[in-house]
Design brief:
Arc Repressor Mutant, subunit A; 70% helix; DNA-binding; homotetramer; globular
Amino acid sequence: MVLASSDPQSHLRVDAERNRERVLGAAKEAFSRLGFDASYHDIARSAKVGVGTVYRRFPERPALLEAVLLDILRDISFHAHSATVDRRDSWQAFEAFFEKLAGVHQRYAGLSERLAGAASPAVKTARDDWLEKLQALCAHAWAHGLRKDIGPHELHYLAGLFARRECDLANQSRSGHALAMRVILDGMRQ
Amino acid sequence: MVLASSDPQSHLRVDAERNRERVLGAAKEAFSRLGFDASYHDIARSAKVGVGTVYRRFPERPALLEAVLLDILRDISFHAHSATVDRRDSWQAFEAFFEKLAGVHQRYAGLSERLAGAASPAVKTARDDWLEKLQALCAHAWAHGLRKDIGPHELHYLAGLFARRECDLANQSRSGHALAMRVILDGMRQ
Amino acid sequence: MVLASSDPQSHLRVDAERNRERVLGAAKEAFSRLGFDASYHDIARSAKVGVGTVYRRFPERPALLEAVLLDILRDISFHAHSATVDRRDSWQAFEAFFEKLAGVHQRYAGLSERLAGAASPAVKTARDDWLEKLQALCAHAWAHGLRKDIGPHELHYLAGLFARRECDLANQSRSGHALAMRVILDGMRQ
Amino acid sequence: MVLASSDPQSHLRVDAERNRERVLGAAKEAFSRLGFDASYHDIARSAKVGVGTVYRRFPERPALLEAVLLDILRDISFHAHSATVDRRDSWQAFEAFFEKLAGVHQRYAGLSERLAGAASPAVKTARDDWLEKLQALCAHAWAHGLRKDIGPHELHYLAGLFARRECDLANQSRSGHALAMRVILDGMRQ
DNA sequence: TATGAATGAGTTTTCATTCAT
DNA sequence: TATGAATGAAAACTCATTCAT
């Protein structure tokens, strides 16, 4: 990436960009804490910035949501790629990736729905790219024990099952999550 | 129902009871359609009744939520019991029950969280009763192939994974649900 | 007008209607005091009513503006009619009417623009009706000294000149208004 | 302008002065287009300058308003003087001046109010000077047909009636303005 | 008692003004 | 100094809850 300062168009890009990052980070934080419906005021407070700044950077909710989704997709795409090319024990890498992905869903409640409902071309493109990464990962994993009927969509769905829920009926299901993960990982193996 | 019809109060009581049922049914309908945060207005509309009536029957949200949760728990407790005493192929009965339970979670998004967070003694009691039913079911199922490390809490957690989400990235995950169910059922078997 | 209570459709019409009137009156008051851009909060405060009530009665600004304009048009139409059928000194009645009309413009700054810009069919109809009344008045007045080249539009324009302005350069133009009115009334006479 | 160009400050001063003129011109343009409430952003856009520059030149609105009013007063004072000393048909010169003055009011909606409300000593002085010019003009015009009860304030008020309004109810009042002018000019004549 | 109108706190959004670059 | 980004108060609007009828 070319540094912003070399772009003659960009006056004040330094602080503006810094703020953009701050707001984006705060939005992710707020979305993970309060859901994707967190208010602009919540985000601004979290970013320690005025509401107006959030609006200046992301004049409408879809634009903000888009930026966050792209950020998340970039992150998990990277991990999918890493897991695919991992030189070490492949199944272990696959399990690690799946847990990472489940963790993202647990952090961002409703992520699947937002990804599915996104209208923005940029998100659609990134989503398709992401599915390709998943496809490659599955192809790789098939050779190392993954059920053949599990493709990218199924994998996505399975990870999506872990969308955040606090549901231990008696403060006892700390084990619930671990066991469920174990059950699913085992179930995914041929 | 055949209460002294000569008592001028009884008419009101019957009427009131009917209204309570209407509102309760409408609340379940609205909760399943819009989530547990459905507004009293939504519920009232669904019940074809004024908002005031909903407030009269359930002056505060917790009371309404309690009634709905008790209703749901009664229903799934009954199915757990049925599956336990089923004379036929026990594993098949277990699978049928699990799918039923997952279906309830799919209908009522966020059910686990509400059950876990309930403060009402009545719900707590019903929840304990429900866990006992699940315990009996597990004990029975252990003898027919269920992993020994899956107890009532784990079973509850696993079914809860299916809390409703519309998340097919490309209208392709009709297969997602079926396969996830298969993966989990397989993973639960020893 | 049929009383509201005879309309089977209208439950609670009594208080709702009462509030509608209150809000409408408050809107007129606020519009005259602060201009047609007075905020809903100003209007609500003026009506001693919650903002929500103003929104319930007039869910969007155009609807509120429409109601106010119709009210004003009804009022001045009535006066135009009265002046036309006045049995006594016709020119004096004409002058009285013109002063009344100028007063309305003085009270509601920007009235002409709002009338001209109205998109609502109801306002357009009322405006046409109003122009007809003015036409009749002019026809009548022509026979009593009004310049023949003054028709309804010209009359409207002339009265509109008095749109509210506080403009005495040295607290001395109390005479300004009176003299201007005299000059114009004289200028209108043949 | 030919200030010592060797003074390193002078460049800045010339530059600053040029900017001041630019902003002032833009303010007049914006005020005439959007009214005296035009935002600093509007003015900046019109001047093709950042908002900050407008604030630097005129740190507070009153200062900017003052500069604009002084500019306008200078202009109309000059015309009043010209009309007074005009050698040709005096009444015609008077009419021309009145139309010019009405035009200024039409261009700057709300000018009268701003002039009347000005707190700045400079504006007050200029206003008094302006009234003297008007006084002289009236004195001159009285001898050529102007009603004796029309003095400077009345004249100012009458011209102020033409403060801009777009109010043709049916795209027909092109005639409105011309006729109103005729009516008033006729009415002003003895 | 049932109703739906009224309430006002909360959210989204804009914009005049300030301030870091 | 000029710039335009940041600020936050205020406007428009929504909706859960209360209350008059």
